[in-house]
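Help needed: design a sequence for this.
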């Protein structure tokens, strides 16, 4: 059925067979079969073991093929040498899904491939090998290798590590936390994070998702599913392997780089990223209680200087700024005689602070508009009552709009107070560091959620403007079997995307150099031109501020001689000359692009020239970028200090730097051949930014027939789908993919629809469009959804007149469509053309069918569907509806 997710039979099976079920108490098959019985599994349960007649009182069959009915889930707990034969049996028996609990080693890769090929040929989906199993406590499903009692709840746990799964389950049991699902992916040989997240998004029992990640197999699928899920349900992620090397050129050890790239990806995915198991659950519990710090600045209230200093130090480690108290707040606190002789942040109330002092201090801080988050710390003192102070904090928390978190330090003396705060839904910790980490993680979550909503990519028609000419240039170079571009060629490509560059001309001998210098105009810069030398300065191949013909003559011979001495094998084609830039306030930046082994193209920004540092000193972002995302990169700690004004030197023109970053991002999106790009120096000052030097390496890029953005982990705005149609009556209609900023456009369109058109579109009498639905319509993932808007423009005002959209159906192979046209534009053929464009999009993405539900009393839509080649079928659940289906291939 269309509304059943295609993995429902795996995670919510109506029948389970345990292959390798045993009476041996220490065996894996015994434990899993016993877990299913003890959990009260309500489906059909079968034991499979050729050596047993019964297992735990249940009859046992020799093979899964002997069961005689189709099984939703087989749990395979047999020796590694038997796995392939068992998978073959499951395939012949028509088993839908299998969890392979047996672990395989690195030497078993050939066996893994055979198992996967056999399973795919039989249409059998696999979890594992080496999976801990699956738990759905509310369904009585405990098909997992664990002795831990797992309670029912609204958290879903998805982990690649069975060991970490056990650690998390044990921690959760100790803290009385329940789960909707526990899914152990292990190697992710077949079913992976992407498909599992798709299922959990549709799962009504799951409110929050916890992920434990070791490695990513398919970055596009992972990011697409993660971004779609994060729009609907909060996701908290714990990632290990932070010190694996990445694929950056000259990437050094890659220790911090791999983690920095992953962190950049998670910022764009809108998730909470944490560093340990404790943070994983603290973040989940805090989100569940409505804890919502939306800015990072923190105020600390304490009754001891030491605990306050510990919290401040941890905030500094994490880059969480302590907010400066306004003069008004300082005056109010001074009048209350709060803070002693010094009123600051952290705010020390004194060791003997009574409940009233805590209350008054928090109320005073709440009056300061710059303070949104407060950490309240209490350390035991002979003259304090932890319970009374906790109650005071609970009472004042209901009166103010602050995000309040508490740290009651100590043991037995504060246990009751901690319970009181916990019951009131206020996060409370034993140590200041953990409390600060929670603020940091959750505030970053809301910042990342804002980044998630950004849609970036070229908004003009691809093939016009820069990218069309650039593609031709790259293809010409590849046809010559060239991969390293000269500085002049690299700048030409950058210029074609609107990046400001200095004029560069190449001279092949000293005479040409003299004439080129005269043509450019003195002073000039001369650089060696060689495809083998990346760092021209290191090679001795750069001379600056050449102001006369004689200096050009000398510099040419000096450069060529120096480079030949230092690099005798390097090919030297001549020198390049360009104007010498005199920018007294100019900052030299390094803007780079490299191809990460997992996430594809990555953009980096940091200090350039002689100040260029280690990869850890740069900020990273995944393209595509728009101005908001570019500004986020500029505002990062690694870059902010480089561009800010200091000691009378004005800050750089941030708008100009934003434009360069967005233009480079457009180049990366549209030219999949780019393997490496280094712009160094990018000279920026208060008057703008310009590229002085660039190094660019290309390769063959994507295989023929690939999606044009297959090299990207995040699908950019598909500007190539923008079209202009001339309708039969001469009116011009512009059709384009939706953007998040179209919310007002969609609302105005809905408001003008007639009640009948609204009813036919939404199949209910909808008087208004809720904000959540507007968000759903305008904030889409172009990799798995599409929404085409038809608009007209009058007096420079854009008006929406129709929409056609599809989204991925739960079966994973089809898309579900919806179509609506403004009342005064019906009967002009707009609906037919919109559906035709939408069908082309779905076909090009490789989907098998496009499907929709139409009211039986909507004859116009049914006629349109029939005319477009849809098959009209009875609806499987509702007799007032018709299901329309069109095959997209074959």
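Sure. Designed sequence:
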């Amino acid at each position: 059925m269309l509304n059943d997710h295609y993995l429902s039979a795996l995670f919510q099976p109506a029948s389970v067979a345990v292959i390798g079920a045993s009476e041996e108490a220490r065996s894996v098959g015994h434990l899993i079969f016993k877990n299913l019985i003890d959990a009260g599994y309500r489906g059909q349960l079968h034991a499979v073991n050729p050596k047993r007649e019964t297992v735990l009182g249940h009859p046992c069959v020799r093979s899964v093929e002997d069961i005689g009915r189709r099984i939703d889930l087989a749990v395979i707990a047999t020796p590694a040498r038997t796995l392939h034969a068992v998978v073959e049996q499951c395939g012949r028996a028509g088993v839908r899904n299998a969890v392979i609990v047996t672990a395989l080693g690195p030497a078993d890769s050939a066996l893994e491939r055979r198992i996967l090929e056999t399973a795919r040929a039989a249409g059998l989906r696999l979890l594992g090998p080496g999976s801990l199993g699956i738990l759905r406590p509310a369904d009585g499903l405990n098909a997992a290798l664990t002795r831990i009692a797992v309670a029912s709840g609204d958290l879903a746990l998805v982990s690649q590590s069975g060991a970490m799964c056990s650690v998390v389950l044990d921690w959760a049991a100790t803290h009385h936390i329940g789960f909707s699902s526990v899914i152990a992916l292990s190697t992710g040989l077949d079913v992976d994070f992407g498909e599992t997240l798709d299922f959990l998004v549709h799962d009504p029992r799951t409110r929050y998702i916890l992920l434990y990640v070791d490695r990513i197999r398919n970055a596009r699928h992972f990011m697409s599913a993660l971004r779609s899920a994060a729009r609907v349900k909060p996701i908290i992620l714990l990632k290990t392997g932070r010190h694996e090397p990445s694929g950056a050129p000259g990437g050094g050890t890659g220790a911090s780089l791999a983690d920095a790239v992953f962190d950049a990806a998670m910022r764009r995915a809108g998730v909470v990223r944490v560093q340990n198991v404790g943070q994983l659950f603290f973040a989940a519990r805090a989100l569940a209680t409505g804890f919502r710090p939306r800015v990072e600045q923190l105020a600390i209230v304490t009754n001891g200087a030491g605990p306050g200093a510990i919290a401040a130090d941890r905030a500094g480690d994490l880059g969480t700024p302590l907010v400066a108290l306004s003069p008004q707040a300082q005056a109010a606190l001074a009048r209350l005689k709060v803070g002693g002789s010094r009123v600051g942040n952290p705010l020390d109330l004194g060791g003997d602070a009574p409940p009233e002092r805590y209350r008054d201090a928090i109320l005073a801080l709440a009056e300061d508009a710059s303070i949104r988050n407060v950490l309240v710390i209490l350390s035991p003192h002979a003259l304090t009552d932890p319970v009374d102070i906790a109650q005071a904090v609970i009472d004042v928390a209901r009166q103010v709009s602050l995000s309040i978190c508490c740290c009651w330090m100590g043991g037995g003396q504060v246990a009751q107070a901690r319970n009181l705060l916990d019951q009131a839904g206020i996060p409370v910790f034993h140590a200041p560091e953990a409390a600060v980490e929670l603020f940091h993680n959750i505030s970053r979550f809301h910042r990342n959620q804002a980044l998630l909503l950004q849609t970036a990519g070229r908004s003009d028609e691809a093939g016009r403007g820069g990218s069309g000419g650039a593609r031709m240039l790259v293809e010409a170079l590849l046809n010559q079997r060239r991969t390293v571009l000269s500085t002049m060629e690299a700048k030409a490509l950058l210029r074609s995307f609107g990046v400001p560059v200095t004029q560069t001309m190449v001279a092949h001998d000293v005479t040409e150099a003299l004439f080129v210098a005269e043509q450019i105009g003195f002073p000039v810069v001369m650089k060696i031109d060689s495809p083998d030398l990346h760092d021209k300065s290191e090679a001795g191949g750069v001379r600056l501020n050449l102001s006369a013909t004689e200096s050009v003559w000398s510099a040419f011979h000096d450069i060529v001689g120096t480079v030949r001495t230092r690099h005798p094998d390097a090919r030297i084609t001549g020198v390049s000359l360009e104007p010498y830039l005199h920018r007294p306030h100019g900052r030299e930046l390094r803007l780079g692009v490299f191809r990460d082994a997992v996430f594809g193209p990555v953009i980096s920004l940091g200090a350039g020239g002689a100040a260029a540092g280690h990869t850890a000193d740069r900020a990273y972002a995944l393209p595509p970028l728009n101005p908001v995302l570019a500004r986020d990169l500029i505002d990062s700690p690694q870059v902010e200090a480089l561009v800010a004004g200091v000691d009378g030197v004005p800050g750089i023109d941030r708008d100009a730097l934003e434009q360069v970053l967005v233009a480079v991002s457009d180049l990366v999106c549209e030219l999949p051949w780019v393997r490496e790009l280094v712009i160094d120096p990018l000279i920026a000052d208060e008057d703008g930014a310009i590229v002085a030097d660039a190094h660019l390496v290309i390769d063959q890029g994507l295989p023929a027939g690939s999606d044009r953005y297959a090299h990207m982990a995040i699908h950019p705005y598909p500007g190539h789908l923008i079209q202009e149609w001339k309708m039969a009556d001469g009116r011009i209609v512009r059709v384009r993919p939706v953007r998040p900023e179209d919310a007002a456009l969609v609302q105005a369109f809905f408001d003008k629809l007639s009640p009948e058109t609204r009813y036919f579109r939404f199949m209910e009498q909808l008087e208004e469009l809720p904000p959540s639905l507007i968000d759903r319509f305008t904030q889409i993932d172009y990799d798995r959804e599409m929404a085409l808007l038809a608009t007209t423009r009058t007096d420079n005002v854009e008006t929406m007149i129709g929409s056609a959209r599809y989204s991925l159906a739960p079966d994973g192979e089809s898309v579900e469509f919806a179509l609506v046209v403004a009342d005064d534009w019906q009967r002009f053929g707009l609906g037919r053309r919109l559906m035709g464009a939408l069908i082309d999009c779905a076909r090009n993405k490789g989907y098998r069918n496009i499907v929709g539900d139409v009211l039986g009393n909507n004859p116009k839509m049914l006629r349109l569907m029939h005319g477009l080649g849809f098959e009209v079928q009875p609806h499987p659940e509702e007799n007032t509806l018709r299901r329309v289906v069109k095959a997209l291939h074959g």
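The mean pLDDT is 88.
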